[in-house]
Specification:
The complex is a heterodimer of chains A (67) and B (183). Chain A has one domain. In chain A, 60% of the residues lie in helices and 0% in strands. Chain A is elongated, with a radius of gyration of 23 Å. Chain A starts with 5 loop residues before the first helix and ends in a 7-residue tail after the last helix. Chain B has 183 residues and is mainly alpha-helical. Chain B folds into two domains: 77 residues, Rna Polymerase Sigma Factor, Chain: A (Orthogonal Bundle); 106 residues, Arc Repressor Mutant, subunit A (Orthogonal Bundle), CATH 1.10.10. Chain B has nine helices and no strands. The radius of gyration of chain B is 18 Å and the shape is globular. The chains are: A mainly alpha (67), B mainly alpha (183). At the A-B interface, helix 1, helix 2 and helix 3 of A face helix 1, helix 2, helix 5, helix 6 and helix 8 of B.
Chain lengths: 67, 183
């Protein structure tokens, strides 16, 4: 178990205070672009193959139990 | 094998958009990404009993996907990835005009990051995981994740020629990381 030095504690506190919850800086260009890049990927249309795959897995499963 | 609950299936379905986004971020290739997601769903289904209900399913799935990605990388060797890296490194990135970064340029810059840094900055900056969760997903220490995020951020700024992102202070993260973790 390591102990934090005073400097580290101060740094950690400073980071918390300035970080605004976003480690990349809430308003930074990189944080914004990263979000934009990722949100675009997340909102991409999901091909049917995945729902079909799960249905197949479900059907091949023995003794299906309802819950 | 115990039956897979409807609830589990519904949650798997719900996680697919996030899994695909993470997979594209890792592979930088839409087809490979979807194969990776498919593999992940099959694996998750097979080992659903090892998932602890009430814990973070998304983190559990991301862990499976990530492990699958690295095991595929090991199998196919690194040539493909490396030559891709060289190609993209040759693409010139123009300095942002009027402070606006083109998303295409950003994507190109992200591709140039080593996988470990790219996945760290994606998990923390985009997927919404905490440092602790990201460390768990990547099987490494929290300090390692922090240092990867910090290096990724610095590298992106360098590639994109962004300077003076001062709202936060460019060295605050790295100072903290080097101060507490020499890894």
């Amino acid at each position: 178990m390591k102990e934090m030095t005073k400097k580290q504690m101060a740094d950690a506190a400073g980071r918390h205070r300035n970080g605004d919850g976003n480690p990349l800086g809430a308003n930074s260009e990189i944080a914004r672009k990263l979000k934009q890049y990722y949100d675009e990927l997340v909102s991409d249309h999901v091909p049917d193959r995945f729902a079909q795959l799960l249905s197949q897995l479900e059907q091949t499963e023995p003794a299906q139990k309802k819950d | 094998m115990a039956a897979v609950s409807q609830n589990f299936k519904t949650e798997l379905l719900g996680a697919i958009p996030s899994l695909r986004a993470f997979a594209v971020s890792l592979t930088q290739n839409a087809d490979r990404a979807d194969d990776l997601v498919q593999e992940t769903l099959v694996k998750a289904w097979d080992k659903h009993e090892s998932f602890q209900p009430g814990t973070n399913l998304k983190a559990w799935l991301f862990t499976i996907l990530r492990n699958e990605f690295y095991s595929q990388m090991r199998k196919r060797g690194r040539e493909v990835q490396d030559s891709d890296g060289i190609m993209t490194a040759r693409l010139a990135v123009h300095p942002a005009q009027h402070g606006q970064l083109d998303l295409k340029d950003f994507r190109g810059a992200l591709e140039q990051l080593p996988e470990d840094q790219r996945e760290a900055i994606i998990l923390i900056g985009a997927s919404g995981f905490s440092y602790e969760e990201a460390a768990e997903i990547c099987g490494c220490a929290v300090g390692t994740i922090k240092s990867r995020v910090s290096r990724a951020r610095a590298r992106l700024q360098e590639i994109l020629k962004i300077s003076g992102e001062d709202e936060f202070g460019p060295d605050a993260i790295s100072a903290q990381v080097t101060g507490s973790n020499a890894a």
